[in-house]
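Supplementary Methods. Inverse-folding protocol.

Structures were first reduced to a C-alpha coordinate string of length 153. This string, shown here, constituted the complete conditioning input.
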Protein backbone atom coordinates (compact mmCIF):
# COMPACT_ATOMS: atom_id res chain seq x y z
CA UNK A 1 0.00 0.00 0.00
CA UNK A 2 1.33 3.42 -0.97
CA UNK A 3 0.96 6.11 1.66
CA UNK A 4 0.94 9.90 1.34
CA UNK A 5 4.37 9.95 3.05
CA UNK A 6 5.79 7.55 0.42
CA UNK A 7 4.43 9.74 -2.38
CA UNK A 8 5.94 12.87 -0.82
CA UNK A 9 9.34 11.20 -0.50
CA UNK A 10 9.16 9.93 -4.09
CA UNK A 11 8.20 13.38 -5.38
CA UNK A 12 11.06 14.98 -3.44
CA UNK A 13 13.55 12.44 -4.80
CA UNK A 14 12.31 13.06 -8.36
CA UNK A 15 12.57 16.83 -7.89
CA UNK A 16 16.13 16.61 -6.53
CA UNK A 17 17.17 14.33 -9.39
CA UNK A 18 15.81 16.79 -11.94
CA UNK A 19 17.51 19.69 -10.17
CA UNK A 20 20.88 17.93 -10.15
CA UNK A 21 20.49 17.06 -13.81
CA UNK A 22 19.80 20.69 -14.66
CA UNK A 23 22.90 21.82 -12.77
CA UNK A 24 25.07 19.32 -14.61
CA UNK A 25 23.93 20.67 -17.97
CA UNK A 26 23.80 24.39 -17.22
CA UNK A 27 25.47 25.21 -20.54
CA UNK A 28 28.16 27.55 -19.23
CA UNK A 29 30.98 25.58 -20.87
CA UNK A 30 31.85 25.48 -24.57
CA UNK A 31 29.71 22.99 -26.48
CA UNK A 32 30.16 21.11 -29.74
CA UNK A 33 32.49 18.39 -30.92
CA UNK A 34 35.73 17.77 -29.05
CA UNK A 35 37.61 19.52 -31.87
CA UNK A 36 35.32 22.58 -31.76
CA UNK A 37 35.66 22.87 -27.99
CA UNK A 38 39.45 22.58 -28.25
CA UNK A 39 39.51 25.31 -30.91
CA UNK A 40 37.44 27.73 -28.79
CA UNK A 41 39.65 27.10 -25.76
CA UNK A 42 42.81 27.59 -27.86
CA UNK A 43 41.45 30.92 -29.15
CA UNK A 44 40.72 32.07 -25.60
CA UNK A 45 43.86 30.80 -23.85
CA UNK A 46 46.42 31.02 -26.66
CA UNK A 47 49.70 29.29 -25.81
CA UNK A 48 48.39 27.85 -22.53
CA UNK A 49 47.41 24.26 -23.37
CA UNK A 50 45.02 22.23 -21.24
CA UNK A 51 45.01 18.49 -20.56
CA UNK A 52 43.12 16.33 -23.06
CA UNK A 53 39.35 16.59 -22.61
CA UNK A 54 39.52 19.48 -20.11
CA UNK A 55 36.71 22.02 -20.36
CA UNK A 56 36.48 25.65 -19.34
CA UNK A 57 33.79 26.44 -16.81
CA UNK A 58 32.41 29.63 -18.31
CA UNK A 59 30.33 30.58 -15.30
CA UNK A 60 33.34 30.49 -12.98
CA UNK A 61 35.94 32.00 -15.33
CA UNK A 62 36.80 35.65 -15.94
CA UNK A 63 38.76 35.97 -19.18
CA UNK A 64 39.53 39.44 -20.51
CA UNK A 65 41.00 39.46 -23.99
CA UNK A 66 42.07 36.32 -25.79
CA UNK A 67 44.97 34.45 -27.27
CA UNK A 68 48.40 35.13 -25.83
CA UNK A 69 47.31 38.44 -24.26
CA UNK A 70 44.40 37.39 -22.04
CA UNK A 71 44.26 38.24 -18.36
CA UNK A 72 41.99 36.87 -15.67
CA UNK A 73 41.05 33.51 -14.24
CA UNK A 74 40.16 30.37 -16.19
CA UNK A 75 38.45 27.63 -14.17
CA UNK A 76 38.80 24.28 -15.91
CA UNK A 77 37.30 20.86 -15.19
CA UNK A 78 39.67 18.00 -16.01
CA UNK A 79 39.07 14.34 -16.74
CA UNK A 80 42.40 13.36 -15.16
CA UNK A 81 43.26 13.28 -11.48
CA UNK A 82 45.26 16.03 -9.80
CA UNK A 83 48.57 14.11 -9.97
CA UNK A 84 48.27 13.59 -13.76
CA UNK A 85 47.23 17.20 -14.31
CA UNK A 86 50.20 18.43 -12.26
CA UNK A 87 52.54 16.26 -14.38
CA UNK A 88 50.94 17.65 -17.56
CA UNK A 89 51.67 21.26 -16.62
CA UNK A 90 55.21 20.47 -15.44
CA UNK A 91 55.92 18.73 -18.74
CA UNK A 92 54.01 20.75 -21.34
CA UNK A 93 54.42 24.38 -20.30
CA UNK A 94 58.24 24.40 -20.48
CA UNK A 95 57.93 22.86 -24.00
CA UNK A 96 55.89 25.95 -24.96
CA UNK A 97 58.53 28.37 -23.69
CA UNK A 98 57.15 28.87 -20.17
CA UNK A 99 59.73 29.00 -17.36
CA UNK A 100 58.82 27.35 -14.08
CA UNK A 101 59.23 29.81 -11.19
CA UNK A 102 57.90 27.55 -8.47
CA UNK A 103 56.11 24.22 -8.19
CA UNK A 104 54.48 22.85 -5.04
CA UNK A 105 52.79 19.44 -5.10
CA UNK A 106 50.31 19.16 -2.24
CA UNK A 107 46.60 18.68 -1.59
CA UNK A 108 46.24 21.98 -3.43
CA UNK A 109 49.12 22.11 -5.90
CA UNK A 110 50.47 25.41 -7.20
CA UNK A 111 52.70 26.04 -10.22
CA UNK A 112 53.91 29.47 -11.30
CA UNK A 113 55.24 30.07 -14.81
CA UNK A 114 56.55 33.10 -16.69
CA UNK A 115 56.92 33.74 -20.39
CA UNK A 116 57.99 37.09 -21.76
CA UNK A 117 56.08 39.73 -19.83
CA UNK A 118 53.40 37.33 -18.56
CA UNK A 119 52.89 35.26 -15.43
CA UNK A 120 50.61 32.25 -15.11
CA UNK A 121 49.65 30.68 -11.80
CA UNK A 122 48.13 27.20 -11.98
CA UNK A 123 46.23 25.83 -8.99
CA UNK A 124 45.14 22.17 -9.07
CA UNK A 125 42.73 20.54 -6.63
CA UNK A 126 40.94 17.20 -6.53
CA UNK A 127 37.44 17.23 -7.95
CA UNK A 128 34.25 16.21 -6.22
CA UNK A 129 32.20 13.05 -6.27
CA UNK A 130 30.12 13.06 -9.43
CA UNK A 131 32.10 15.99 -10.84
CA UNK A 132 35.42 16.41 -12.63
CA UNK A 133 38.40 14.37 -11.38
CA UNK A 134 40.26 17.62 -10.77
CA UNK A 135 39.75 21.35 -11.07
CA UNK A 136 42.38 23.65 -12.51
CA UNK A 137 42.44 27.41 -11.91
CA UNK A 138 44.78 29.27 -14.26
CA UNK A 139 45.37 32.93 -13.46
CA UNK A 140 47.14 34.99 -16.12
CA UNK A 141 48.45 38.52 -15.77
CA UNK A 142 51.26 40.83 -16.89
CA UNK A 143 54.46 39.98 -15.01
CA UNK A 144 55.04 43.31 -13.32
CA UNK A 145 51.55 44.72 -13.17
CA UNK A 146 51.36 47.95 -11.21
CA UNK A 147 49.12 46.77 -8.40
CA UNK A 148 48.29 49.19 -5.63
CA UNK A 149 46.96 47.83 -2.38
CA UNK A 150 43.77 49.51 -1.17
CA UNK A 151 44.14 51.85 1.78
CA UNK A 152 42.08 51.57 4.92
CA UNK A 153 40.12 54.58 6.04
Amino acid sequence: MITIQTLKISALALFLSALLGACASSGDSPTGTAEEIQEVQNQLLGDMPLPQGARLSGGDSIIIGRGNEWVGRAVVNALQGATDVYAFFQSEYPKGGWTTVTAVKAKTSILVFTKGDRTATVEIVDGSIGGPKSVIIVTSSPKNANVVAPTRK
